[in-house]
Design a protein that fits this description.
Keywords: Apoptosis, Phagocytosis, SH3-binding. It contains 30 helices and eleven strands. By secondary structure, the protein is α+β, with helices and mostly antiparallel strands. It is flat and about 105 Å long.
Length: 719
């Protein structure tokens, strides 16, 4: 008979004593439980003690979290949080440096626990930490422990960042700006400033003023990868908190300092592998930079703007040395207007009498005009060749430059997600972005010439305009998916992917689709499915056994909090626990928390998850919702909440957990994997039938022969 639900069997340890094995009644007050434990060891003053987990984060047991204790848990009898807080509060004020350093080290460790943190803060412990930082001159180990403790205490959100004193902030800033400081102190100082920046406009302005971009660039150039990462984190925090005008000024300054080339050479192509955190920051930097184009993209052309009209006229003047503007020409106004309209028509504007009308659509708005002007000024030969080559054609096969440029700009904005908010978890950046200044304009220059090339290869007319741009979009997206490291490599690859190559790829995909739609093939697919689905199930469970590193995403920061979860080899228990940064695959023994698979009741995802509902008051980030899932366990009372690092990991975990729950796998990745496996298996099975058409119905079975005398009788041979 199973034990009652409100009773758990646990072990309790104490230094120098024989462990106690007890049955903990969850309905019994914790104070009574502690008294019984202390009485068994003849310890007076039970109120001075508390229970604490032995493994993992060594959390204190309280009435609010005692329900999380599982059968087989090992606890430790230790000093109560209030007593420990009092002891450490006195210890960090000691005149003995060894005692003070040890107390600060212990404080940094215990501050992870919310119960202890509250007790310490209630004793005005933060004030003492401020005093140590503001008045102290130490820049070594003791200061590192102090800052670490401060970070952990602030993480619990008991105290607002806006309450920090100016003296404390200036001291933290000084550690960032000083050279002769321990690297760990600088890392913690950068993290503190990074957390301050998003909390208020005042703190943002203070940090932006005190920590210059030059100083952050200096930290980015060090060989210490962690210091480099924290400097990048603060830079990104400043960019995200800035106004549009401030962000533009900051990006212009960074461009002057060649930050892109430095990142391309020393971070992307460094000998060390690029971590997930740095990849995310590079994605954000790319997104912020590209989104500087958004204002022009969303602004329609103003036909009364002198500056915009001059830009438009410069396109015509660069392409055609018009007779109407030649020295000494005395054309009438009407004649001059007629010549201009003719030249704008040759440029490919739909409304040649008033070309500004073509640029009234936003997006792409003025961004299309900027791109055309950039192309005409920076590659004048290619521009003139494009325009003159097409304007002189009389066979209706001319490629309209202006119309193509407007549509191409819109396509590039969609592909590069210009105008969309940054994702909190994405890591997909283009390495070539950091290898080139004026990336968007240079990419346009390559792609507009690709439009002309593809137009000629397709022998297109005006009626084929949409078809040509569809092919160009496909050429660009297929090439970008290869992640070329430079624009030159992109140019080479995108030009190699000509129209005939696109047709071949489409033909291959179409033939494959037609093959797989034949009735006998569909029947074969259905027969193969169960075996391949079982293969996918096994792969998903193996992936869960290997485990995944998850991040705890809070409203203020994205880094530092890591935890790992993996399935036991016998598929009966999920093990999880907090890990330090840099640990890729911790052994299963080091993960203290457990959930028996038998206790798992349900799987939630997206908006149904409790950790996404908690944040529903704020601005929901779509990508976090798409990666969130929760395991409901233990009579549907508790949840283990996840935010997957990628969509791929999300799909694998959802499938694996559904397998453990005895349900069908439902992710899009499962369907993709099944299609790939079915395709490979079908190709192998149908290898001998290549170039043989498969009939929709099986051929008729012939009648049996009139006699079976042709059969060989093996019995005679044996004799």
């Amino acid at each position: 008979m199973p034990p009652p639900k409100d009773v758990v069997k646990i072990a309790i340890q104490m230094v120098g004593a024989i462990p106690q094995l007890i049955e903990l009644q969850q309905t019994k007050p914790l104070a009574s439980v502690l008294k019984d434990v202390c009485d068994a060891w003849s310890l007076p003053n039970a109120e001075c003690y508390a229970l604490q987990y032995v493994d993992g984060r060594q959390t204190y047991i309280t009435e609010s979290n005692r329900g999380e204790i599982k059968n087989g848990s090992i606890l430790r009898l230790t000093t109560s949080p209030d007593q420990e807080a009092e002891r450490l509060y006195s210890g960090i004020q000691s005149n003995n440096l060894d005692v003070k350093t040890d107390s600060l080290k212990k404080l940094a460790s215990l501050s992870l626990d919310v119960t202890f943190a509250q007790e310490f803060i209630n004793r005005n412990g933060l004030k003492q930490i401020f005093y140590i930082v503001e008045e102290g001159n130490d820049t070594g180990e003791m200061l590192a422990h102090t800052l670490k403790a401060f970070m952990e205490l602030m993480e619990h959100d008991f105290v607002s960042w806006e309450t920090l004193s100016a003296a404390f902030i200036k001291k933290i800033v000084s550690y960032v700006n000083m050279n002769a400081v321990d690297a760990s102190v600088q890392q913690l100082s950068l993290s503190i400033l990074e957390n301050m920046v998003p909390t208020s406009r005042l703190l943002f302005e203070l940090v932006k003023k005190e920590v210059t971009l030059d100083r952050l660039l200096t930290h980015l150039q060090v060989t210490n990868a962690q210091l480099q990462l924290k400097a990048m984190a603060l830079l990104i925090a400043l960019l995200l908190a800035a106004t549009d005008a401030e962000r533009r000024d900051m990006m212009d300054y960074l461009r002057e300092k060649n930050i892109r080339q430095f990142i391309h050479k020393n971070i992307i192509h460094s000998s060390e592998p690029l971590g997930d955190e740095m990849a995310h920051y590079l994605y954000v930097l790319q997104s912020v930079s590209l989104n500087l184009c958004e204002r022009r993209m969303r602004t329609s052309m103003d036909p009364y703007s002198q500056e915009q009209r001059e830009l438009l006229q410069s396109l015509r003047q660069t392409a055609f040395e018009s007779e109407s503007e030649a020295p000494g020409s005395n054309f009438s106004t009407e004649r001059r207007r007629s010549l201009c309209a003719k030249e704008f028509r040759k440029l490919g504007f739909m409304n040649n009498s008033n070309p500004a009308e073509d640029l009234r659509r936003a997006p792409p708005g003025l961004l299309a005009l900027d791109n055309m002007v950039y192309f005409s000024r920076h590659t004048p030969n290619a521009y003139s060749r494009f325009v003159l080559e097409n304007s002189s054609r009389e066979d209706k096969h001319e490629c309209p430059f202006a119309r193509s440029s407007i549509q191409l700009t819109l396509i590039l904005c969609e592909i590069l997600h210009i105008g969309e908010p940054c994702s909190e978890t994405a890591q997909a950046f283009y390495p070539m972005f950091f290898g080139q200044d004026r990336f968007f304009e240079e990419l346009f220059c390559i792609c507009i010439q690709l439009v002309n090339k593809t137009w000629k290869e397709m022998r297109a007319t005006q009626e084929d305009f949409d078809k040509v741009l569809q092919v160009v979009r496909e050429q660009i997206t297929r090439t970008l998916s290869l992640k070329p490291t430079s624009l030159e490599l992109f140019k080479t690859r995108v030009n190699a992917l000509n129209y005939s190559e696109i047709l071949k790829l489409r033909q291959t995909e179409r033939l494959h689709q037609e093959e797989t739609l034949a009735v006998p093939v569909l029947e074969l697919r259905e027969r193969l499915k169960p075996e391949l689905l079982e293969l996918i199930r096994q792969q998903r469970l193996l992936h869960l056994c290997e485990g995944t590193l998850f991040r705890k995403i809070s409203s203020r920061r994205r880094q530092d909090k890591l935890w790992y979860c993996r399935l036991s080899p016998n598929h009966k228990v999920l093990h999880y626990g907090d890990v330090e940064d840099g640990v890729d695959s911790p052994p299963i023994e080091s993960l203290p928390e457990k959930i028996p698979v038998a206790d798992m009741k349900m799987l939630l995802m997206g908006k149904e998850c409790p950790h996404t509902k908690e944040k529903s008051s704020g601005k929901q980030n779509k990508d976090v919702l798409e990666l969130a899932f929760s395991i409901v366990y233990d009579m549907e009372e508790y949840c283990l909440n996840f935010i997957a690092p990628t969509r791929y990991e999300f799909c694998l975990w959802m499938d694996g957990l559904n397998v453990l729950l005895g349900k069908e796998m439902t992710s899009e990745r499962m369907q993709t994997d099944l299609d790939v496996l079915l395709s490979m298996e079908l190709k192998l099975r149908l290898l001998d039938l290549e170039n043989i058409s498969i009939p929709d119905t099986p051929p008729p079975v012939p009648k049996p022969p009139s006699n079976l005398n042709f059969c060989y009788d093996f019995s005679h041979a044996e004799q």
